[in-house]
Design brief:
The structure is a homodimer. By secondary structure, the first copy, chain A, is of the alpha/beta class. Helices cover 34% and strands 12% of the residues of chain A.
Chain lengths: 355, 355
């Protein structure tokens, strides 16, 4: 039946989240989760259930202070949100308010164009080079803002500070957002550039290196004027942004630097030997500074490997997207998980070659 | 320094959340929190800290199923979000997409005009009658949508189903949102009207009657087509909407109907005697079906009482807004808390009269 009320419903391209398979025996290497649990320190604390009756602190003061202290910035330089997706969505809405197109790579985090569409922000997506590197010159053109992840996703490629500086020097009239979701796995953060660039916003998450995807904690660091602007927008949506367990456990996790470093080192060393083994099996991939690699096989289509691995209970990520549909994004799990994947691949490839 | 990047920052009227005083001895009756803790059942369960490394279920399946079962609706009629503020913000964005003004009362939940401004939705605010009742005829005019809380906030007045039906019958071409944040404290829900009105969306929260403000859980119930539309918008922002502790504890709390009923009955009976005592002290207020009353004193300005109570460590809410600036919104706490407030008021009023 055609009812008039349908006419005013906002139409959006529905975003389809990655598969969340359930089951004990699944090896889940498809959503870049951390294979090690969060800091054991958070087991020592628990939000008093009695306190759940009370609203959370709308200013998230404890968590903001802890993040500021951790990075050596002022508390008025820190904005927190419900995962970096929330932080980035609010940043798009707050800072990309021009009629000129914003710029981000054609191959990058898949939410950027979703937010641009949702908020009716014009955008252009300069193509990555053949080797999947960002071409800085593409970002010299007039624009309404710039955003990219560093390391980029799903490529894992990390650019150095000279590269970031060059982009910033060519974009002094717009906000430049560097999405550092994966920076802790070997890259160098642009945080040290903040004193020189008042239009730089750096976005981070607790979901990867801090192993707290289940709590939804993200944050942004930038000059206080930017932080105030994004807070005003966020509080207009929902003044109690993060719930009590997130505020409490997020704050505690920042105190355990030893565990944080230890698990990151483990992931990096697993990545190193896993990359070597994958090369032996005929895979190639850009040099990764993230907790995943982006791999293609010399002979076998990525889609086939993806389906076969899934049937064997090993989930990796495949994107049916132009230019990258022959690649797999594989999260770095534990040594045991990666060995299981390698052993599956070895068998699969040798069977494939015998066909 | 005037930098061009400032030009494209979205300007919003910053929302100022209610005071969140800290301190042991404070009596906090200013944000309509529930004085009784959430169901003791939630103490028996706790999210395994190890699992916090994993993303939450993006479809929030367990919680959605539990809410659907609780209300006897289908699971595809339920949308969940980070508190009812998140649900309402998404509903505004999804359903109020017309160029005609949406309608809501001049005196009502203070976020409605904030969202309308944020999303550039035109709106009109028909005046409540002198007795603070909504005048149904004001909602017969052409519009882009209708939203109001029932019971209304901060008045506490609840309208019956004939009233709601009348509004719906005059608004078949737009979405009508009934915000039932306070419905469990004595009102009759419009849920039973859902089979007759496909354009009706009912919004609820776990923050008041379920005493879980600290977890941020809200939901909407409506026809599956509306639910799909709002999900698409929500997932465009952030596909992992609610964190693991919220999903787990929210689901468990729905199982404890006995505790739920018991605490609501306590609040209603406290409200009944508190209203009687307040009348003796010279206060008047509309009949409340919420966990607060909206009171004005026959002689003493509300602002003075507000300040004096605050100085004595008792927080109630005062709005510096035309027509209601001589009223106080007082949350119904425990008997002991309300006695403390009454005893303060008695002393304060008699001192005031001796001046």
């Amino acid at each position: 039946m055609l009812r008039k009320w349908r006419a005013n419903i906002r139409k959006v391209e529905p975003y389809i989240p990655g598969e969340q398979p359930k089951g004990e025996k699944i090896i889940k290497l498809n959503t870049n989760e951390n294979p090690y649990g969060p800091s054991p320190m958070i087991r020592q604390v628990q939000e008093d259930p009695e306190n759940l009756r009370l609203y959370p602190d709308p200013a998230a003061e404890d968590l903001v202070n802890a993040i500021a202290a951790y990075h050596g910035v002022d508390r008025d330089q820190v904005f927190v949100g419900v995962g970096s997706d929330d932080v980035l969505a609010m940043a798009f809405l707050t800072f990309f308010n021009s009629w000129k197109p914003i710029l981000f790579p054609d191959i990058t985090y898949s939410f950027y164009n979703v937010w641009a569409e949702l908020f009716r922000i014009p955008y252009k997506r300069p193509e990555l080079a053949q080797d999947f590197r960002i071409r800085p010159k593409d970002y010299y053109q007039e624009n309404g803002g710039v955003v990219f992840p560093n390391p980029n996703a799903p490529t894992g490629i990390c650019e150095d500070l000279d590269f970031i500086r060059d982009i910033l020097d060519h974009n002094t009239d717009v906000i430049v957002i560097i999405d550092e979701a994966y920076i802790d796995f070997g890259g160098r953060s642009a945080l040290e550039l903040l004193p020189q660039y008042e239009n730089l916003l750096i976005v981070r998450t607790f979901s990867k290196s801090r192993s707290m995807a289940g709590l939804r904690i993200g944050y942004a660091i930038g000059n206080p004027e930017l932080i105030r602007a994004i807070q005003d927008v966020k509080y207009s949506f929902n003044s109690y942004t993060m719930n009590r367990p997130s505020l409490l456990l997020g704050t505690v996790s920042l105190k355990d630097e030893a565990y944080f470093k230890e698990t990151i080192d483990k992931i990096i060393s697993t990545r190193t030997w896993f990359e070597r083994e994958m090369k032996h099996l005929g895979f190639s991939f850009p040099d990764s500074q993230a907790n995943f690699i982006f791999a293609t096989h010399e002979k076998i289509p990525a889609r086939d490997i993806f389906e076969a691995a899934k049937a064997a209970g090993i989930y990796v990520r495949h994107f049916s997207q132009y230019r990258i549909d022959n690649y797999l994004r594989i999260t770095i799990g534990t040594d045991a998980q990666m060995k299981a994947l390698l052993s599956f691949l070895e068998t699969y490839i040798s069977e494939w070659e015998r066909r």
